[in-house]
Each structure stands twice: as structure tokens, then as C-alpha cells.
Automatic annotation (TrEMBL):
Domain Beta-galactosidase galactose-binding: 511-565
Name this protein carries in UniProt: Beta-galactosidase
Cytoplasm found in the keyword field: no
PANTHER family per record: BETA-GALACTOSIDASE RELATED (PTHR23421)
Entry keyword Transmembrane: no
Family stated for the protein in its record: Belongs to the glycosyl hydrolase 35 family.
EC number: 3.2.1.23
Catalytic activity: Hydrolysis of terminal non-reducing beta-D-galactose residues in beta-D-galactosides
Keywords for this protein: Glycosidase, Hydrolase
Length: 595
């Protein structure tokens, strides 16, 4: 039976063990690519893989759990074990990770007066239920049960959020009650206040640090904290940021490779490492996070390339080979191998074979009726888009219209004619429109661009999406609403009344259908540089958002989502013509300077 211990150094079966780990998120990489990605981690010379576990993916609705297919965490662990990799798991309720709502399920926002990430009975009851369903999938794989799992995380960067030690202790107790016997840890920034608030060092829970530079100084800060609490523990950077994430409208951030390698070398001479990220992957669907700002939050892009050691598509970068070389210099006998490189193909351009306007085909989608508009959370439709529709009395030739309290982007229509798109502080600006009839169909398309994944706004009302106050015509709140839940289910998309594509620019959001035949199935990128804003669905899987704002103008399509005959639908909201589908064998990025 194996045993992993935290003493003055990490010990595995009584022998010193230096953790060389890389972050690989199973939920961001198609399951068909898990094995090759983990093989490349092993080929680098590493011995461990680390992954977060996103609560919102595994419990998408209250008490409805999913551990199948892409969410089969057991299969991911088994794949690592087959390659003789150890595993670090981070099943904390909150993960940050630039993931929608930091991994918290949006349905938590329906709990009245509940406080998130706190010693709150409602929140802790939900955490306990989650662990009761999650932990049976993890506990059998602990090292002391013959598996590869070395340790698990209690909470993530809690010292940058709160100081509720009772909450941290309850999460710890839930993990122990669920059968977790391996060492537990916390991870925080290394300044004293964060370490004091976010750790359980006096309860013998391992403290690890998160940083992306100045390794010596950060380890010095951790050592001082350990000494102040009379602990002699191994130093570990649980997240060494080898790159950074991207937000819409901002340039891609790249790390200087020689500077990073020098800093990592100094780190490894003193402690253990988890590279964040080894392979970043993709925020498929609507799972991108969002950076909190006072007036208008900044949503992150679909690609989670992160300038990581492997690219979004799994291609080894210059960083990979520089790091492999440095490791060999430190430990000449370290086992390494040549990495695997995936094949990427730029397929021939395909013409659209049908198109339909969203307002025209709204009756095909599931509709909820209410007297006043309901939020996304009240509708249990937590992500993407909702189309709100009512008929207003408009006795005057000119009327005024405004939306009260909505997030994050709204498009307003009168009799299917676009009046305006509003976002941020512009939402709520009053519009006037011509009303040639005594009644007018009012449509409001609302997009949730992503809930914040870090910081004070986790608790803010702005994280509830959709129309929350109402819609006024003249000075009256309108009643009798249809909420049309824009779903991209493959069977539903196949039934839509597509018409031949015209040369005219669309006057409403459109869904454009493509049939794509492939003689050979390989990974690819879809070129979105001529589109406006929207998302793309490949064989029923939403591969993510695109936006002309950049900096990334392509969407990655893993081979595992493709087959010889494919149905692809582009949902375009900005009235840009979509009549062809172009493919690339590389991403399309503004000011690209690849590693």
C-alpha cells in the first residue's frame, strides 16, 4: 500500500518526492485528447498532473449530477495512472480558473439570502450534497487505496476573498467525512494577509502558494509564514503562471521564455511545482469566465490557450522544449521522451445551405410564460441567450422603450426591427420608436457574456443575468411575457425552417446551417474573422463564442467532435452576412507572436 506524507519534505513510501506537476483541465480538453496530452506531460519529465473539478459542470441543475463522457473524472484519473502519473485534485467549491462563475453553479443565485463561500447554512448544505455525490468518484483513487491521487484542495485563493475560518474548516470536515484520507492543502497568494486569511496552517493543512514570477522572493515569504507558525513544510508553488488568459478587445499576453525558465530553475532548486497551465484548452460553450470591474465586467475569450506549454490544440511550443532542456540540466537521469504533435487541417471552404432569423423561428424553442420578465436563474436557463417577447399597447405614433436592470448585452426590437444594442451602463437608456399600429411586438434578446470568476462581485446582484427589473413602454412596466430559451440542441437545430441564403444583410440575429463532408477527420480551426459576434455549434456541441473585437478570430474544433458528415450552425447576432465556412490549420490572433 502506498503512502504520501507531508513532512519537512514530501515523502512517497518513506522516500523524498519532488512534485513536478502540470495543470490539465479534463473539462477543457476533448476526452479523445486526454491520453496524448498526458503522454506529453510525462514526456516532458513530469510525474504528476493537477486538475480543478468544476462544480457547475457536474451539478448543472440542483441535485442532478453528471459524471459521464467529457465529465468522467474517473476515466481521466485512470488515464493518468496508466501513464504512471500521479494526480493532484482540486475539488474546492470555488475554483476561479477563468471559468464561468469560478465553477459555482448559477442556480445557487436562486437561494434567497444565501452567502457564497461563507459559513452559511444554505451554501454549506449545497456543498455537502455535492461532495456526497462527487467524492465516491475520487476516494477510490487515493494513493492509500492503490490509486494515483496524492492530495486534494480545500479552497482556492480564499485569502483573496474572505477570512471565514469556520467555512474553511467545514469544507475540510466534509472532505474528511466523505472518505478523503490523503493530505489536504490550500493555495493562496504569498503576501501575509492572504496567507493568514486563506489557510488552516494551525490545523495542519498544507499551505501552498500561487505566483508567476519572483520564485525566490515568494518562497521566502512562505518560509517566513511557516516559521511564524512553527511549521517545517516543503515549499510548493501550486500555480506557477506560465502565461495568462485573454479578454475580448485586449492583446494576447505572452511570457518571455528565458526569463520564465530561469525563474523556474530557481524554484525547482528549492521546492515543488505545478505549472499553470501545461495545456490550457478551450472554454467550450458559454463557460468563459469574466473579470470584475466597477462599471462593466470584462468577459474572457473562448480560447484558454494561456500561452501554455502545449497550445490550445495540444501542439508542443518552444516553451515545452526549453523547459525539457532545463529539466535535463538539473537532473540528467530524468526520464524524458519526444512529445506527440497533433495533426491540424485547413479544410476547403464550405457554402451555407440554409439560414433562418431567430425572431422568425422563435416558436421552435422552449417558451416560458410569466406576467413579468424572469431572470436566467429563475428560468433555470443559466447561460447563453434568452429572447423576451411581449405585445405592447402603442396608441401614439411615437413611443419610448427602456429596459430596467439587465445583464449583460441587450438588443431591442419593435415589430422585428432593430432599435439598438446596449451593453454596460448604456442598458436602460431610453429609446424612441415609430409605432404605426396600436399594438407593437417588443423583442429583447439578452446575452449572458459570463459571470465573474474572481473577486468581490461573486456576491453581487450583477451576476444574476437576464432582465431583472422589467421593460417599460412609455412609463408603464409591460406584462405578459414569453421567455424564449435559445437552446442549441442538435435535434432542435435540425428542425428549424432554414431558407436559401440571400445576398442581403440580415435584419435580425440568424442561424446559418452548413453540411460539411470530410474525407479525413482531423482537428481544425474555424475562421471567424469575417463574422460579427455569436457562437458556433458543431454536431450539437457549442464550441464557444467568437467576436470581431478580437484578439482571437478563430474557434478550435477538436477531431473528436467531427465525423465524415457534419452539421455546423453559426449563430450570428450582429447582422453580419454569414454565407461560408472557412477552416484554418492554425489559430487567427491579433498581433500574434507565438512562443
Amino acid at each position: 500500500m502506498m503512502k504520501f506524507e507531508v513532512k519537512d519534505q514530501f515523502e512517497l513510501n518513506g522516500k523524498p518526492f519532488k512534485i513536478l506537476s502540470g495543470a490539465v483541465h479534463y473539462f477543457r480538453i476533448h476526452l479523445s485528447q486526454w491520453a496524448d496530452t498526458l503522454y506529453n506531460l510525462k514526456a516532458l519529465g513530469f510525474n504528476t498532473v493537477e486538475t480543478y473539478i468544476p462544480w457547475n459542470f457536474h451539478e448543472p441543475q440542483p441535485n442532478q449530477f453528471d459524471f459521464s463522457g467529457q465529465l468522467d473524472i474517473e476515466k481521466f484519473i485512470q488515464t493518468a495512472q496508466a501513464l504512471n502519473l500521479y494526480v493532484i485534485l482540486r475539488p474546492s467549491p470555488f475554483i476561479c480558473a477563468e471559468w464561468e462563475f469560478g465553477g459555482l453553479p448559477a442556480w445557487l443565485l436562486n437561494q434567497p439570502n444565501s452567502r457564497l463561500r461563507a459559513n452559511d447554512p444554505q451554501f454549506l448544505a449545497a456543498v455537502e450534497r455535492y461532495y456526497q455525490n462527487l467524492l465516491p468518484h475520487l476516494v477510490p483513487y487515493q494513493v492509500d487505496n492503490g490509486g494515483p491521487v496524492l492530495m486534494m484542495q480545500i479552497e482556492n485563493e480564499y485569502g483573496s476573498f474572505g477570512e471565514d475560518q469556520a467555512y474553511l474548516k467545514q469544507v475540510r470536515d466534509d472532505l474528511r467525512a466523505g472518505g478523503v484520507t490523503v493530505p489536504l492543502f490550500t493555495s493562496d497568494g504569498t503576501w501575509p494577509e492572504a496567507l493568514a486569511a486563506g489557510t488552516l496552517i494551525d490545523d495542519d493543512v498544507l499551505v501552498t502558494g500561487n505566483f508567476g514570477s519572483h520564485a525566490v522572493e515568494n518562497f521566502d515569504a512562505m518560509t517566513a509564514f511557516f516559521n511564524a507558525h512553527h511549521q517545517q513544510w516543503p515549499l510548493m508553488c501550486m500555480e506557477y503562471w506560465d502565461g495568462w488568459f485573454s479578454r475580448w478587445g485586449e492583446p494576447v499576453i505572452r511570457r518571455d521564455i528565458p526569463e520564465m525558465i530561469a525563474d523556474l530553475k530557481a524554484l525547482l532548486q528549492r521546492g515543488s511545482l505545478n505549472l499553470y497551465m501545461f495545456r490550457g484548452g478551450t472554454n467550450f460553450g458559454f463557460m468563459n469566465g469574466c473579470s470584475a470591474r466597477k462599471n462593466h465586467d470584462l468577459p474572457q475569450v473562448t480560447s484558454y490557450d494561456y500561452d501554455a506549454i502545449l497550445s490550445e490544440a495540444g501542439v508542443p511550443t518552444k516553451k515545452y522544449f526549453a523547459l525539457q532542456k532545463m529539466l535535463k540540466e538539473l537532473w540528467p537521469n530524468l526520464p524524458q521522451a519526444t512529445p506527440r504533435t497533433p495533426k491540424l487541417t485547413a479544410y476547403a471552404t464550405v457554402a451555407a445551405d440554409g439560414q433562418v432569423g431567430l425572431l422568425t423561428c422563435a416558436d421552435y424553442f422552449t417558451t416560458t410564460i410569466s406576467r413579468y420578465p424572469l431572470s436566467f436563474e429563475q428560468l433555470a436557463h443559466y447561460y447563453g441567450y434568452v429572447l423576451y417577447r411581449t405585445t405592447a399597447n402603442t396608441p401614439r405614433p411615437t413611443e419610448a422603450l427602456k429596459v430596467i436592470d439587465a445583464n449583460d448585452n441587450v438588443q431591442l426590437f419593435a415589430n422585428q426591427r432593430l432599435l439598438a444594442s446596449q451593453t454596460g451602463e448604456a442598458i436602460g437608456d431610453e429609446l424612441t420608436f415609430a409605432a404605426p399600429k396600436t399594438t407593437t411586438q417588443i423583442d429583447v434578446l439578452v446575452e449572458n457574456q459570463g459571470r465573474v470568476n474572481y473577486g468581490y462581485k461573486l456576491q453581487a446582484p450583477s451576476q444574476r443575468k437576464g432582465i431583472k427589473g422589467g421593460v417599460m413602454v412609455d412609463h408603464q412596466f409591460q406584462i405578459n411575457w414569453q421567455q424564449i430559451l435559445v437552446d442549441f440542441d442538435q435535434e432542435l437545430l435540425a428542425r428549424l425552417p432554414y431558407q436559401p441564403v440571400t445576398t442581403q444583410h440580415p435584419t435580425q440575429p440568424t442561424l446559418t446551417h452548413f453540411t460539411v463532408h470530410l474525407a479525413q477527420v482531423q482537428s481544425t480551426f474555424i475562421d471567424c474573422s469575417e463574422y460579427g459576434k455569436g457562437c458556433i455549434i458543431v454536431n450539437g456541441t457549442n464550441i464557444g463564442r467568437y467576436w470581431a473585437r478580437g484578439p482571437i478570430h478563430s474557434l478550435y474544433v477538436p477531431a473528436g467532435l467531427l465525423k465524415p458528415e457534419n452539421e455546423i450552425v453559426v449563430f450570428e447576432t450582429e447582422y453580419t452576412r454569414v454565407d461560408s465556412l472557412k477552416f484554418l490549420d492554425h489559430p487567427l490572433i491579433d498581433q500574434e507572436n507565438p512562443s
